[in-house]
Amino acid sequence: MYCKCNSYLCLIVQVTTDCIFLETTIEFRIKDEEFNFQGKEILKAGFTRVYPFTVISNSEVIPEVTVNVSYPVSDVSTYAK
Q1: Domain positions in the chain
Q2: Helix (H) or strand (E) holding 28
């Protein structure tokens, strides 16, 4: 099984192009609290067209934002590190 998977991955690498994506991080401050969020946008799907197990979701795309403009909050989550 390992050899078959390895051969499959080698074939994908040889016949496909790289997946190219743009990763954006937005950092902002509200009073004394600092916040940030990240998103990814696929620019060129490349090998992910034939190997979908590593696809970057387009739901991670950050909408355009402008400095000094207010935006509504649509979701709140807390993550502990």
Answers
A1: 2-60
A2: strand 20-30
